Amino acid sequence: MLPPHGGNLVNREPRSAKSREHLKREASELKNIELKPGEVKHLQNIAFGSYSPLKGFLGKNDFNKVVRDKTLEDGTVWTVPIILDVTEEKADEIADEEKVTLVGESGIQLAIMEVEEIYSVDKKEAARGLFETDDEDHPGVKNFLNRGDYFVGGPIKLIRGGFEDFYKYLLKPVETRVLFKEKGWEKVVGFQTRNVPHRGHEHLQKSALEVADGIFIHPKIGQKKAGDWKDKVILESYDILLDNYYLHDHAVMSIFPADMFYMGPREAVFDAIVRKNYGCTHFIVGRDHAGVGDYYGDFDAHKIFDQLSDIDIEPLTFDYAFWCKKCGQMVTDKTCPHSMEDRIAPSGSKIRGMIKDGETPPDEIMRKEVAEFVTGQESPFVMEG
Does the global pTM surpass 0.90? Predict the structure, then answer.
């Protein structure tokens, strides 16, 4: 099993009930910053070690290095900035504070944060570096530019987790590392998804299982753009697929509580690093990973791994998978000699269109049990906020 990114698995949780109570008493004396739901998920991921080696939200030097060089200030590869933004009014309020309490929208104490730095950046310029565009039609750019004008950097100490949706599916990195070891899995393939599974996804996962001991299916659960699948539908459809078509000793599913960045190639590297922290040795990178619209090339997420220093976890890159009527199975260009007329591509947009029109996707592109489940959902897609 690979070591965590940076060498050690970060743990910012209280070590005992006594230390938790001490933190709560201290937190009650401090000024507050209220976190948005996405920041609550970041906080939890930092504390659990999912974002190792981060111990808190990024300061300015780390932020600028991530934007410019895709590394932290110490040279560790890191491609997505994990930041906490505040308004100018809040920045002025906490300017002289050494520590603050981070609270959820309901006011519940979540963590104490050391205020090492309050800073601002040119968000337009940063967006161009991170997303390769500052076009506000790009949902990731729009979200980033709408954040507060000041960022607060510093380490955190968790009081309690604040993200509890689908908690029964949640495994921490320390837990998956033990689980994989107990199962005897030496090669573990991570699979990131924000979609209901179709036959193309299943083909990628089972192809990877031919060279690995187990697969870790890890849907990203959190804010998504309008038209994406709802989290509940994704998880329940995977339950159906795993129950009916996978060897249970070789597949595990958990959730990755995090909003989509839609950062394309950068997010592919970030997703790989996160799965490395969970104990994966390999990570599937499909077509247009974490992409949106036509902002990124179909295989840009494959190429970026060759441009960076080695991050240890091995990317498994795959070509398009499709159903060939003559072959009678899922294939790729590497295995099928037949023409386009013989192919049925499991296009995500095509599947969503069929579902919206009340049509059940055929078995060639989606398993019958999954297709019937998603077709039967009254509202399976994220609506415009």
Answer: yes
| 287 is a catalytic site residue | no
Kind of pairing, strands 117-119 and 251-253?
Answer: unpaired
Of 12, 195, 352, 367, the active-site residue reads 195
Pair 69, 131: CB distance under 8 Å: no
What is the C-alpha R_g of the chain?
21
- pLDDT value at residue 58: 98
Q: What are phi and psi of 273, to 5 degrees?
A: -65, -45
Q: 285 lies in a domain?
A: yes
Residues 53-70: pLDDT tens digits?
Answer: 999 999 999 999 999 999
**In a shared domain, residues 31 and 88:** yes
> Structure tokens of 52?
């190792």
Cα 250 from Cα 212, distance rounded (Å): 9
For 230-254, what is each residue's pLDDT tens digit? 999 999 999 999 999 999 999 999 9
Residue 339 structural domain: 167-375
Contact 211, 314 (CB under 8 A): no
Is the same domain home to 216 and 115?
Answer: no
Residues 12, 177, 194, 199: which is the catalytic one?
194
